[in-house]
Amino acid sequence: MASEKPILYSYFRSSCSWRVRIALALKGISYDLVPVNLLKDGGQQFSAEFKAVNPMQQVPALKIDGITLSQSLAIIHYLEDTRPNPRLLPQDPKKRAQVRMIADHIVSSIQPLQNLSVLKQMGEKKMEWAQNCIASGFQALEQILQHTAGRYSVGDEVSMADLCLVPQVSNAERFRVDMGPYPTITRINKALLALEAFKVSHPSQQPDTPAELRA
Predict the structure, then answer these.
(1) Residue 36: CB partners within 8 Å, gap ≥ 6?
(2) Which range has the worst mean pLDDT, 19-33, 49-63, 83-97?
């Protein structure tokens, strides 16, 4: 029923899941979390049970208002359309386009290239591959942000672009990417991580976070 509490299928370290967790936190939406371990048992996302939830066998998936949605930006856009406060897309058309541009740059041109399914194919070269993909994308992103950023990615309000940026920086750190060449990305990331919604949604704070990785 539409009145039921939303259910988020998530993996603590999934950057795509983290984007949605930030959006839910920012908008004050309470939800139940169902962990999907992408490594255990060969990947729980490949189970018949989860395939019935999301045929793409990826997290996140969100059951909300009587429907099931997958793909992080599609989920965030739905939350924005149905629960617009606080807004994650600026009212100004130019800034709105910039937010979408930055979000798409990360979710289409950086993250998929270093995703788990790709890295499995890279064998011993997976670390080098991930570093190169992220560094190439960050070189462009740093240049873009130098023109769009205020306190955050676009101006001084948290936007959908920021929901994509922070998890991607976390990925970069996990793959030991040198962040020295990206001072704007680093500054924005630090400012965002100080916000409560980014803290509570952090991979170190999730129900399925392994004990050794908890903050």
Answers:
(1) 9, 10, 11, 44, 45, 50, 59
(2) 49-63
CA atoms within 13 A on the CB side of 189: 20
pLDDT tens, residue by residue, 73-118: 999 999 999 999 999 999 999 999 999 999 999 999 898 565 666 6
Closest CA to 180 of 208, 146, 139, 144: 139
pTM, full prediction: 0.91
Residue closest to 63 by CA, chosen among 19, 20, 100: 20
d(CA 4, CA 63): 9
Strand pairing partners for 18? none
Phi, psi at 118, each rounded to 5°: -75, -45
72's CB contacts (< 8 A; 6+ apart) are: 16, 17, 19, 20, 60, 107
Q: What is the 3-state secondary structure (H, E, C) of the chain?
A: CCCCCCEEEECCCCHHHHHHHHHHHHCCCCCEEEECCCCHHHCHHHCHHHHHHCCCCCCCEEEECCEEEECHHHHHHHHHHHCCCCCCCCCCHHHHHHHHHHHHHHHHHCHHHHCHHHHHHHHHHHHHHHHHHHHHHHHHHHHHHHHHECCCCCECCCCHHHHHHHHHHHHHHHCCCCCCCCHHHHHHHHHHHCCHHHHHCCHHHCCCCCHHHCC
- Are 61 and 14 in contact by the 8 Å Cβ rule? The answer is no
Side-chain-side CA neighbours of residue 32 (13 Å): 7
